[in-house]
Amino acid sequence: MGFIMNHSKFNDFLEKIGQEYKIYAPVLLEGKGTFSDTDTIRYGQVTSIDQIVFNEKSQFSPKEIILPITQTLFYFTEDSITEPKVEDKRILIFLRSCDIHAIKRLDQIYLNNGYEDSYYRKLRDKVKFVLMECKNSFENCFCVSMGSNTTNEYDLFVRESNGQVSIECKDESFDEYFKGMEEVPVKPTFIDSNETKVNIPENLDQRVFNWEGWKEYSSRCIACGRCNTVCGTCTCFTMQDIFYKDNKNTGERRRVWASCQVDGYTDMAGGHSFRKDKGDRMRFKVMHKVYDFNKRFGYHMCVGCGRCDDICPEYISFSNCVNKLNKAMEEVE
What we know:
GO molecular function, one term: metal ion binding
Strand content: 15-25%
Pfam families: Fer4_22 (PF17179)
Keywords: Iron, Iron-sulfur, Metal-binding
Order of helices and strands: EHEEHEEEHHEHEEHHEEHHH
Organism: Clostridium aciditolerans
Number of strands: 11
Helix content: 25-40%
Protein name: Anaerobic sulfite reductase subunit A
Largest sheet: 7 strands, mixed
Oligomer: single chain
């Protein structure tokens, strides 16, 4: 079913549905950018269509909504453990095709990887998707190369154009919000080309460890981990036990995002560590995104959103790295 309404009617829809759902979308955060007097686009809760940024790519992915940066798993005392309550409201997320594919990767790791993570499941079961189409390919995107430029796994589709909002409803649970409205055909359009194109090497083997190209990143990377932070498919975390000052026998255990690019990520008991070289860390990340994950699950982990290229302060390009690796592997055949 498809419907068309003006901004006022759509805001009424958001108000009604907001009684049951917490609604998240890309929003403009003025003055919150990386540098002084710059803005950023990041996911936040919305109540009006005017708050939603449709025509620009968010710097952060919507991952942080269902996999929080810091998440309390349980509270503990001397003799008890209590899990925090999960809010009753469901979650509605406005996101693009590549981000829907990215959440599929999170599901693979946290739900279909031999063990189901109950903390992730509690939030994931509450989520429904509102698709936002990309009218043009954004800078550094290579979603077409990764096959994530199209999707049919959404519950609602919303297009804003010239003060009018077009909606496609695929989920019957939302039908009641459109009762009495005239149905019209509404379908999303998807981009079919990017300026950036990536060729995944098909002949990767042990020779990849000896590729001289990794040395470039040993000198350029500063191990800030920002590429992992903005990535929609990175799933690594560490644990923190927080002890309260008033009683050192009570506190909470938190799950916190981690980065395979930062110092200390591979530290082990006894003071040992591996992949201390930044080039080795880059190799680990690249191989995981375009080889290891695919070998195990049958599709690539990277979805080509290009956020890692956008955010890197040293202008390191993941897409360029993969293309250079592909060229190197072709030359040694």
